Amino acid sequence: MKKQIAVLPGDGIGAEVAESAISVLKVVSEKFGHEFEFKKGLIGGCAIDEYGTPLPDETLTICRESDAILLGAVGGPKWDGNPSELRPEKGLLTLRKSLDLFANLRPVTVFESLAEASTLKFEVVNGVDLMIVRELTGGLYFGRPSERIGENKDAVVDTLHYTRKEIERIVQKGFELAQVRRKKLTSVDKANVLESSRMWREVVEEIAPKFPDVEYDHRLVDDAAMQLIRNPKQFDVIVTENLFGDILSDEASMMTGSLGMLPSASLSADGPGLYEPVHGSAPDIAGQGKANPLAMILSSAMMLKYSFNLSEEASAIESAVQNVLNEGYRTQDIADSHSPVISTTEMTEKVKAA
Ligand code: NAI
Ligand code: MG
């Protein structure tokens, strides 16, 4: 299979972990006989420095012409004081919007050898394997008006806006993902108080008959938040709107013990998908070879699976990561008292070998 992959390393450790993912993908392409061409582009702070904008046209063009996009992370103290149009994060937001990446997938997999590092009890998290599917381009974060109102501007309004179409496409995605996983979908809403949630429920009911083999239920978001801590193993795929998904996915992420372990994907209806670690550019450890590359490497496995339909190749990466962890290799963020700490490149080499 021949594919073009846009690589946007970004800033800080983004650049370090992007190199790790490329070198792992090269091993995969050799082993399985694929041809991956990597095209690099600037985004974030480095793009501001070079072109005066966080998302140069050239980068957007490379992304549009590619089959998938790998992104490291953006941002850093150097650009913190910039006006909003010249902030590194603006590059990422514009990219998501330009490519209509409405479905954000965040898998939370607790590897047995790391379950001790979780903030929750070992028995509760060991074996957790769930995915949160968050609507990313609508809802409260994009509703207008969003402003101070009234004569004295001492009242506020935010608007939660969704169209039926927007709900349909994310719910459909949730069912599709559940179907290729353990066939269980939990739709999360607040239908006891929100009209948007009542429409959300209707849409789930309308789409469900298309997936007779998928078992599904509805949960209120407060209950879902509680159940994620009490018994996370009951979940397979959770589909929800933007705000609820933002909060639940951060909550769920703490089960893995480190930000350095969490991959993500953002998908559109038919254009290239964007794959990136959940973590940021980690300026505190940038340039020191300490970054955990596994979140980025696991993001590239998601790319193989969801954009290229290469499940076997994706599993090869995931098992390699699992084996390396089982052997006790740790970067500093996931280190415990009885494992030697290795660097970003050493971890990458271990995964490639595995
Ligand atoms: P961060 O995720 O960069 O770092 C939080 C903490 O986790 C730090 O102590 C860092 O050292 C550690 N950490 C993160 N990833 C790690 C890894 N792979 N291996 C080992 N340790 C890791 O979040 P923070 O500090 O809030 O933000 C730093 C910069 O990154 C800011 O400029 C922020 O705007 C940006 N950011 C960018 C994101 C993106 O590009 N998607 C997401 C979040 C933050
Ligand atoms: Mg968040």
Automatic annotation (TrEMBL):
<comment type="similarity">
    <text>Belongs to the isocitrate and isopropylmalate dehydrogenases family. LeuB type 1 subfamily.</text>
</comment>
<feature type="binding site">
    <location>
        <begin position="280"/>
        <end position="292"/>
    </location>
    <ligand>
        <name>NAD(+)</name>
    </ligand>
</feature>
<comment type="function">
    <text>Catalyzes the oxidation of 3-carboxy-2-hydroxy-4-methylpentanoate (3-isopropylmalate) to 3-carboxy-4-methyl-2-oxopentanoate. The product decarboxylates to 4-methyl-2 oxopentanoate.</text>
</comment>
<feature type="domain" description="Isopropylmalate dehydrogenase-like">
    <location>
        <begin position="4"/>
        <end position="351"/>
    </location>
</feature>
<feature type="binding site">
    <location>
        <position position="222"/>
    </location>
    <ligand>
        <name>Mg(2+)</name>
    </ligand>
</feature>
<feature type="binding site">
    <location>
        <position position="96"/>
    </location>
    <ligand>
        <name>substrate</name>
    </ligand>
</feature>
<keyword id="KW-0028">Amino-acid biosynthesis</keyword>
<comment type="subunit">
    <text>Homodimer.</text>
</comment>
<dbReference type="GO" id="GO:0051287">
    <property type="term" value="F:NAD binding"/>
</dbReference>
<dbReference type="InterPro" id="IPR024084">
    <property type="entry name" value="IsoPropMal-DH-like_dom"/>
</dbReference>
<keyword id="KW-0464">Manganese</keyword>
<dbReference type="GO" id="GO:0000287">
    <property type="term" value="F:magnesium ion binding"/>
</dbReference>
<feature type="binding site">
    <location>
        <position position="106"/>
    </location>
    <ligand>
        <name>substrate</name>
    </ligand>
</feature>
<dbReference type="InterPro" id="IPR019818">
    <property type="entry name" value="IsoCit/isopropylmalate_DH_CS"/>
</dbReference>
<feature type="binding site">
    <location>
        <position position="134"/>
    </location>
    <ligand>
        <name>substrate</name>
    </ligand>
</feature>
<dbReference type="GO" id="GO:0003862">
    <property type="term" value="F:3-isopropylmalate dehydrogenase activity"/>
</dbReference>
<dbReference type="InterPro" id="IPR004429">
    <property type="entry name" value="Isopropylmalate_DH"/>
</dbReference>
<dbReference type="GO" id="GO:0005829">
    <property type="term" value="C:cytosol"/>
</dbReference>
<feature type="binding site">
    <location>
        <position position="246"/>
    </location>
    <ligand>
        <name>Mg(2+)</name>
    </ligand>
</feature>
<keyword id="KW-0100">Branched-chain amino acid biosynthesis</keyword>
<keyword id="KW-0963">Cytoplasm</keyword>
<keyword id="KW-0432">Leucine biosynthesis</keyword>
<keyword id="KW-0479">Metal-binding</keyword>
<feature type="binding site">
    <location>
        <position position="222"/>
    </location>
    <ligand>
        <name>substrate</name>
    </ligand>
</feature>
<protein>
    <recommendedName>
        <fullName>3-isopropylmalate dehydrogenase</fullName>
        <ecNumber>1.1.1.85</ecNumber>
    </recommendedName>
</protein>
<feature type="binding site">
    <location>
        <position position="250"/>
    </location>
    <ligand>
        <name>Mg(2+)</name>
    </ligand>
</feature>
<feature type="site" description="Important for catalysis">
    <location>
        <position position="141"/>
    </location>
</feature>
<feature type="binding site">
    <location>
        <begin position="76"/>
        <end position="89"/>
    </location>
    <ligand>
        <name>NAD(+)</name>
    </ligand>
</feature>
<dbReference type="Pfam" id="PF00180">
    <property type="entry name" value="Iso_dh"/>
</dbReference>
<keyword id="KW-0460">Magnesium</keyword>
<keyword id="KW-0520">NAD</keyword>
<feature type="site" description="Important for catalysis">
    <location>
        <position position="190"/>
    </location>
</feature>
<dbReference type="GO" id="GO:0009098">
    <property type="term" value="P:L-leucine biosynthetic process"/>
</dbReference>
<comment type="pathway">
    <text>Amino-acid biosynthesis; L-leucine biosynthesis; L-leucine from 3-methyl-2-oxobutanoate: step 3/4.</text>
</comment>
<keyword id="KW-0560">Oxidoreductase</keyword>
